[in-house]
Amino acid sequence: MATISATGSHREPVTHVIFDMDGLLLDTEKFYTEVQEIILSRYNKTFDWSLKAKMMGKKAIESARIFVEETGLSDSLSAEDFLVEREEMLQKLFPSSELMPGASRLIRHLHAKGIPICVATGSHMRHFVLKTQRHGELFSLMHHVVKGDDPEVKQGKPSPDIFLAAAKRFEGGPMDSCKCLVFEDAPAGVLAAKNAGMSVVMVPDPRLDISYHTSADQVLSSLLDFNPTEWGLPPFDDAKS
Ligand SMILES: O=P(O)(O)OC[C@@H](O)CO
Ligand SMILES: [Mg+2]
């Protein structure tokens, strides 16, 4: 089934699109999960999706603090040391990052139709470069990319900072928030988009608790299920009428 839920039945037509990156365009959330499971196993603890839900989409140091606190490890492992340990493993994994289903099709479609598109990711510059190194041509279609270590992003998601900065940098910006559609996979990202006054399509991992779906305007199981015309955007050329 394409649409899991559509909590906001009234859809504002949009003119600009902002994409999250990790877990939405790129299948990189699995790398974070993998290394966090390895680190926790050293302490005979297990990683679960309730903790994952709190960490994903956030700036590295913010999610590291959540990790050590929620797992009760803060006395033996600082957030900073956790990041150092995680980093060594992540750096080897990121260059093999693959696209999520439907990401290439949707980006190419919107770009071809002249819809301004950009990326707003909690990832900092160094990680962004590693993750996108096999996808340079696709990411070059973005009008701009706002990263987590951008000076304008004072606070990570769920703060609206990153999406407001993204809306500002479009041609003729700042764009009206209500004209911007955000695609997100993370609960913190969905809240950040809503805090910025934008519409948001959530494409969550199926392991995420469905209680996190309620803030999104639409919830899809894949980017392949997105119907641009529902949002006032041009239809896919191969769309069936
Ligand atoms: O904002 P995104 O692109 O999901 O990046 C966050 C990332 O650093 C890991 O969750
Ligand atoms: Mg994400």
From TrEMBL:
Top-level taxon of the source organism: Eukaryota
Keyword Repeat attached: no
Name of the protein: glycerol-1-phosphatase
Obligatory cofactor(s): Mg(2+)
A GO BP annotation: glycerol biosynthetic process
Stored Gene3D superfamilies: HAD superfamily/HAD-like, Putative phosphatase, domain 2
Record-level Gene Ontology MF annotations: metal ion binding; sn-glycerol 3-phosphatase activity
Keywords: Hydrolase, Magnesium, Metal-binding
CDD domains: HAD_AtGPP-like
Stored InterPro entries: Gpp1/Gpp2-like, HAD-like_sf, HAD-SF_hydro_IA, HAD_sf, PGP-like_dom2
Signal peptide: none
The protein's enzyme class: hydrolase
EC numbers on record: 3.1.3.21
Reaction catalysis annotation: sn-glycerol 3-phosphate + H2O = glycerol + phosphate; sn-glycerol 1-phosphate + H2O = glycerol + phosphate
Species assigned in the record: Tripterygium wilfordii
Similarity-based family: Belongs to the HAD-like hydrolase superfamily. DOG/GPP family.
